[in-house]
Amino acid sequence: MGGYATADGQIKKGMLYRGGQIFDLSTQQVTFLRDHLGISRIVDFRSTAERNQYPDSVWQGVDYEPVDVLVDAKKSGVSIEGMINNAGDISQVMLATYARLVTSASAQKGYRQFLTALVADPQPTFFHCFAGKDRTGVAAALILKIAGASDAEIFSDYLKTNQSRKKANEAIIARLADQLTAGQQKALGQALVVDKRYLSHFFETIEQQYGSFANYLKSGLKLAPDFPAEFRRQYIEQG
C-alpha cells in the first residue's frame, strides 16, 4: 500500500501489504515474503473455520495474529462457503455484511486491535482474509481514510482486487465446476468480485450511525482522539 498520495505526502513503502490467504505456500513464496518484503507480522481476518481448513504458511519469527472481525455474524458472503450458500442474493448479503463491518462488536473490536497494533508496534505487516477483498478491503480503506487519502484513491485501491484476482477467481470456479450448476457458477463469479456499492455502503453506514468518520473512530472503534495524527506520523512520508 506504500506510495498512495495523502494530503501531507504519501504512505511509506515497505510497511503495509494487503492480500488473500497464504495457504500452502512454496518455499520460494515464503522466502519472498520473509526476506524480500521483510514481512514480520501477519494479521488474519478469517474465521476459525477458515483458518483451520486453510492454515496460513508461517515461518519462524513472524508474528501471526488472527483477528476474526465477523465472529458474531450469522450470515455473510465473505468466505467461499458463504459465497456459494448465498450466491442467489449475494448483493444483498454483501451490503448487509459491509454494514455489519461497521456496527458489530467483533468488527469494532477487531479493527481497533488491528489499527492500534500498527501504531503501537510499526513493522512490515501483511493483512488478509480469504480473498483480500471484503474484510481486508475495508481494513485497507480505513488505513487510507485515516492517512488522508482521497476518496478516489480509496476506491481505486479497493477495486484493484477485481483485476488482481481474476486468474485466482477463474481457478476457484474451475475447481468447483463439477459441484455447481451453470447458474451457480455464474453467481459465484459475481460473488468473487468487489462492487463499489459495497464500500460505499460501508461509509454510508458510518455516516448514518456515527455522523462522521472522525466520530466513528472515536465512538465506534474507541480510538484515542490523537490516533489519526499518530498514525500519520508513523506511516506517512512528507511530500
TrEMBL record:
InterPro entries: Prot-tyrosine_phosphatase-like, Tyr/Ser_Pase_IphP-type, Tyr_Pase_AS. GO terms for molecular function: phosphoprotein phosphatase activity. Pfam families: Y_phosphatase3 (PF13350). PANTHER family: TYROSINE SPECIFIC PROTEIN PHOSPHATASES DOMAIN-CONTAINING PROTEIN, TYROSINE-PROTEIN PHOSPHATASE. PROSITE patterns: TYR_PHOSPHATASE_1. The lineage of its organism: Bacteria, Bacillati, Bacillota, Bacilli, Lactobacillales. Transmembrane segments: none annotated. This is Protein tyrosine serine phosphatase. Belongs to the protein-tyrosine phosphatase family.
